Amino acid sequence: MRKIYYIILFLLFILSSQAQKYEFDLLTKYNSISVNFERESLVYSNSRNQNYFLYVERDSLTKHAKLYDIENKTLHNFLILESKQKNELFFEFKYLDSKAINQESSFHNYEFDVKSINSDSIYKVIKIELFKNKKRKKPEMISVLKVKNSNNNLFPLFRFSCLHPFEFNRNLNFTENVIVESATETLFSGIKIEHKLLYFKEIKLEIQIPKTKNQMK
User: Fold this and answer.
1) C-beta contacts of 32-39 below 8 A and 24+ residues apart
2) Which site among 28, 94, 213, 217 is 20 to 30 Å from 22 CA-CA?
3) How many CB atoms are located within 10 Å of the residue 13 CB?
4) Between the CA atoms of 24, 43, 168 and 113, what dihedral angle is there, to the nearest 10 degrees?
């Protein structure tokens, strides 16, 4: 009996000391356009596990990536090293540090009504209404999404890429296996935001977080 006890302790020690591993099999790019801004979201994700996403920040000043682990409420920061092979751009991710993330900014007290309003054999049209509280009087936001059937539910990928500030709010979900190809988001103020899927590629990427993480205060 004592021998089994020590074996269990040893296995727990091995598991706790191993580096944390994240696997990605999709690379997507969404474009969001409104009157005041235009943004592209380049995101690595796991089609079978939509609880973590790797967001790539690339401009003239910044080449960083942020790995958001929504399940564990953790953010891992990386420096990006770029290279080109046969005119194709590749990224190498160099770990910098980690910190806890506050998901309360995703307005978890809001109420959502998500429903399919039209469909055929390939596409569906989904309507999302966002309400400030349970009274559900007037929606703060209405989004109409065109989605396509998929092998997995990739709606959380769209939410993370486009639906700021609700990117971490898992109450906002559509439970069918779809990928969002385009969406029109109308805010309470009347401002409209157009979202479109520009890029979709199956990839294979694995990132490991060191056993001893650098903590940010």
Assistant:
1) 32/162, 32/193, 32/194, 32/195, 33/193, 33/194, 33/196, 34/191, 34/192, 34/193, 34/194, 35/191, 35/192, 36/191
2) 217
3) 10
4) -100
The H or E element containing residue 78 is: strand 74-85
| Alpha-helical runs (H) found in 23-179 | 155-162
Are 119 and 101 a contacting pair, CB within 8 Å? no
pLDDT digits (tens, 9 = 90+) for 63-95: 899 999 999 999 999 999 988 887 777 889 999
Dmax (CA) for the chain in angstroms is 69
Which tens digits make up the pLDDT trace of 139-187? 889 999 999 999 999 999 999 999 988 899 888 999 899 999 999 999 8
Q: Is 146 in contact with 123 (CB distance < 8 Å)?
A: yes
Q: Give the pair of three-digit tokens for residue 161.
A: 């890429």
Amino acid at 102: N
Q: How far apart are CA 179 and CA 191, in angstroms?
A: 24
Only one residue has tokens 């940010």, namely 216
9: phi then psi, degrees, rounded to nearest 5: -60, -40
pTM for the predicted model, two decimal places = 0.85
Query: Which residues contact residue 186 at a Cβ distance below 8 angstroms, ignoring those fewer than 6 apart?
Result: 141, 142, 143, 192
